[in-house]
Specification:
CATH class of the largest domain: Alpha Beta
CATH architecture of the largest domain: 2-Layer Sandwich
Number of strands: 5
Strand order of the largest sheet: 3-2-1-4-5
CATH superfamily of the largest domain: Ribonuclease H-like superfamily/Ribonuclease H
Distance between the termini: 26 Å
Radius of gyration: 22 Å
Number of helices: 10
Number of domains: 2
Structural class: alpha/beta
Length: 241
């Protein structure tokens, strides 16, 4: 930096310009995590209801519900039943409240997922038990020749680090544990997505108020989800260290 002050005119402006570009690049691309850095409060939160547990065994989605939040504010919602092309079991009818009669007039999975792909765009995604929803998202998009190349975060894994003393980490249990207002409706895609949004925002607020972390990033939430539980406090304290 010794020669910086000796520069004049366009040379000095050029140096400051490249210094600005370097800082911008460093902040957005060099820091650990998925690139570039995105805020945790701007995401699409989604939930699938399905015919079973595994798309690899032929199970299909029967409902998708999703909520788009930007800067922590709900901006849009997506909800639609989808016809998997076969009869669903009585257990699934009872568990989800979705009946074969309801699905009879629904659009096909392929038609619905084409619209849903447009809805999510390139937003980062959040789901409660994301490994489950990400498998079905990949499978259903694959049927129409599409793929999602963005990032997923799991609200359940984050909650296991933030709410370690919760009785369990099912969505309903966490909502009650964190005293989040709810209507008591679960196992329908949009209702679960709405509740997951509230849980996700409560966890961001927890990091802001208890640990003083400003501008919580999506990448931080992903990294937190991978921390050993015993090291969570140390990890979060180091964020502002």
């Amino acid at each position: 930096m010794v020669g910086v002050r000796a520069q004049t005119g366009w040379q000095e402006a050029e140096i400051y310009y490249f210094a600005y570009l370097y800082k911008l690049f460093f902040n957005n691309y060099i820091l650990p995590g998925t690139y570039p850095i995105h805020p945790a409060n701007t995401v699409v939160v989604l939930d699938f209801e399905t015919t079973g547990l595994s798309p690899n065994l032929g199970d299909r989605a029967i409902e998708i519900g999703a909520v788009l939040i930007e800067d922590g504010v709900v901006k849009d919602r997506f909800q639609e039943l989808m016809n998997p092309g076969f009869w669903i079991s009585g257990f699934i009818e009872s568990y989800t409240g979705i009946t074969n009669q309801m699905l009879a007039d629904a659009r096909s999975c392929e038609e619905v997922m084409a619209d849903f792909a447009d809805f999510i765009g390139d937003h980062n995604l959040v789901a409660h038990n994301a490994s489950f929803d990400s498998r079905f998202l990949k499978a259903e998009l694959g049927y129409i020749g599409l793929d999602y190349a963005g990032a997923f975060a799991c609200s359940m894994l984050v909650a296991r680090r933030i709410f370690q003393h919760a009785p369990d980490h099912k969505l309903g249990s966490l909502i009650r544990y964190a005293n989040i207002p709810h209507h008591g409706v679960f196992h329908r895609a949009l209702a679960d997505s709405e509740m997951t949004v509230k849980l996700w925002m409560a966890m961001i607020e927890n990091l802001e108020t208890i640990y003083g972390i400003r501008d919580v990033s999506f990448q931080l939430m992903q990294k937190l989800a991978r921390q050993p539980k015993k090291k969570v406090s140390q990890f979060l304290q180091s964020v502002n260290g």
